């Protein structure tokens, strides 16, 4: 499982971490630097690792058409 720090204001994950502990630590550090962000950013589950890795498969070239 991957974990991210999500900005609720823009609705995007702004950083991704390999563990919940790393994400929580990063969130605490961000809030220590920018205390007014409290409630705007949160730690969320992003995806399972195996689904984020690229799959090994051959890429086909584009099909050419004649005019």
What can you tell me about this protein's structure?
The protein has about 70 residues and is α+β, with helices and mostly antiparallel strands. The protein has one domain (about 1-50). It is about 25% helix and about 30% strand. The protein has 2 helices and 3 strands, in the order E-E-H-E-H. The protein has helices at about 20-35, 50, and strands at about 1-5, 10-15, 40-45. It has a 3-stranded antiparallel β-sheet with strand order 2-1-3. Strand 1 (about 1-5) and strand 2 form a beta hairpin. The longest helix is centred in the middle third of the chain and has 14 residues, at about 20-35. The mean pLDDT is about 80.
């Amino acid at each position: 499982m991957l974990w991210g720090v999500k900005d609720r204001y823009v609705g995007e994950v702004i950083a991704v971490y390999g563990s919940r502990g790393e994400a929580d630590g990063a969130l605490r550090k961000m809030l220590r630097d920018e205390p007014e962000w409290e409630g705007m950013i949160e730690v969320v589950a992003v995806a399972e690792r195996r689904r984020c890795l690229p799959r090994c498969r051959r890429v086909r070239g584009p099909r050419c058409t004649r005019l």
